[in-house]
């Protein structure tokens, strides 16, 4: 039986509040206990009603979305915040900053021809988000303790690192990348499940928080050491590698695991291109995208790191990799950063 989620809807627009409320109420095991029209009243309602979930318009008056998220972390740490954003440059920037500040997830406001269609479309978007929220509210034993799982002999210094991440990813990346040296000797390719436009803002935001160069990938772009390439929303990212060169290939291949960009797609492409000289990392996120990609990496002779349950916002994607027997090492963000640095700087995976 599903846990009933008690929700508060915060949006400046009465129509938007009506749509969000109706979308939530059409879902199973959801109770909307209150609404708010600005950030201050949203915090007050949350303090009074102690909800499980707050949906937050990123452009509320009276208090920025970022400040509201930060204050929620102190005031109601057990309440998950889902930010609702428009596809604008300002909305994208606030969304990424809010995710880094601790928001659970975000959704983009759907555009539909009628009110019923808007409600239905928003409900279909919110449903998996609420399942992810429930997953964090139910205690479960981690699938594996932190530390080395396998002792496979994997030779060769990696030519590339690939990272797959979803819910909680912006926060995880903002903690991982600053721990890597600016002279990181190989390119890093990232798939973060996000729609178009938001990934560009994410790359810009991450670039300001670490010493590495972080860019949104474009077709034909050369993979260079010390650079992080974020797959653009709505495109699949593959890598075409020769002995001395890597080039990014973007295309409109179908979604995999309901995702485009897909972790499986990137990992499989890199495993085919560089073989065993590959380090794959799967971090926080809902679902199973990455399992088959990690299988390809391991079959090619590469090495797989997964984030542990304690440090994940949602222990879904890495858990599935561990359960499939495809993880070589489980650890928190700090230990993953250390393993990455050692692998590329000390002669290969044997040193991990």
Automatic annotation (TrEMBL):
SUPFAM superfamilies from the UniProt entry: CheY-like, Methylesterase CheB, C-terminal domain
Response regulatory domain ranges (all copies): 6-124
Matching Pfam families: CheB_methylest (PF01339), Response_reg (PF00072)
GO MF term (any one): protein-glutamate methylesterase activity
Residues of the CheB-type methylesterase domain: 153-347
EC number: 3.1.1.61, 3.5.1.44
InterPro entries: CheB-like, CheB_C, CheY-like_superfamily, Sig_transdc_resp-reg_Me-estase, Sig_transdc_resp-reg_receiver
Top-level taxon: Bacteria
Modified residues (4-aspartylphosphate): 57
CDD domains listed in its UniProt record: CheB_Rec (cd16432), REC_CheB-like (cd17541)
EC class: hydrolase
Keyword field: Chemotaxis, Cytoplasm, Hydrolase, Phosphoprotein
Principal subcellular localisation of the protein: cytoplasm
NCBIfam families according to UniProt: PRK00742.1
Function text: Involved in chemotaxis. Part of a chemotaxis signal transduction system that modulates chemotaxis in response to various stimuli. Catalyzes the demethylation of specific methylglutamate residues introduced into the chemoreceptors (methyl-accepting chemotaxis proteins or MCP) by CheR. Also mediates the irreversible deamidation of specific glutamine residues to glutamic acid.
Protein family (similarity comment): Belongs to the CheB family.
Domain comment, as recorded: Contains a C-terminal catalytic domain, and an N-terminal region which modulates catalytic activity.
Entry protein name: Protein-glutamate methylesterase/protein-glutamine glutaminase
Upper classification of the organism: Bacteria, Pseudomonadati, Planctomycetota, Planctomycetia, Pirellulales
């Amino acid at each position: 039986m599903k846990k009933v989620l008690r929700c508060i809807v915060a949006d400046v627009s009465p129509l938007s509040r009506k749509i969000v409320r109706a979308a939530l109420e059409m879902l199973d095991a959801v109770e909307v206990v209150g609404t708010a029209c600005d950030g201050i009243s949203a915090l007050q309602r949350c303090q009074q009603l102690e909800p499980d979930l707050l949906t937050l318009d990123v452009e509320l008056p009276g208090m920025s979305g970022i400040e509201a998220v930060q204050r929620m972390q102190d005031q109601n740490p057990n309440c998950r915040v889902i930010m609702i954003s428009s596809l604008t440059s300002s909305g994208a920037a606030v969304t990424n900053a809010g995710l880094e500040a601790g928001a659970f997830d975000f959704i983009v406001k759907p555009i539909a021809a009628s009110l019923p269609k808007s409600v239905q479309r928003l409900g279909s978007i919110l449903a998996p988000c609420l399942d992810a929220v429930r997953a964090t509210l139910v205690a479960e034993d981690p699938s594996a303790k932190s530390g080395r799982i396998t002792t496979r002999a994997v030779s060769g210094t990696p030519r590339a690192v690939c990272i797959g991440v979803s819910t909680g990813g912006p926060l995880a990346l903002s903690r991982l990348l600053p721990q890597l040296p600016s002279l990181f000797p190989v390119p890093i390719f990232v798939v973060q499940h996000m729609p178009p436009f938001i990934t560009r803002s994410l790359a810009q935001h991450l670039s300001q928080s670490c010493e590495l160069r972080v860019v949104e990938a474009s077709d034909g772009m050369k993979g260079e050491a010390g650079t992080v390439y974020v797959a653009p929303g709505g495109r699949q990212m593959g890598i075409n590698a020769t002995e001395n060169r890597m080039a990014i290939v973007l295309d409109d291949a179908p979604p995999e695991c309901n995702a485009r960009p897909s972790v499986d797609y990137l990992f499989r492409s890199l495993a085919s291109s560089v073989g065993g000289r590959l380090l794959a990392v799967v971090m926080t996120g809902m679902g199973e995208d990455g399992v088959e990609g990690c299988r390809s990496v391991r079959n090619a002779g590469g090495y797989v790191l997964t984030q542990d349950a304690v440090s994940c916002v949602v222990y879904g994607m890495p858990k599935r990799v561990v359960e499939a027997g495809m993880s070589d090492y489980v650890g928190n963000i700090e230990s993953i950063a250390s393993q990455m640095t050692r692998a590329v700087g000390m002669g290969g995976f044997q040193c991990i």
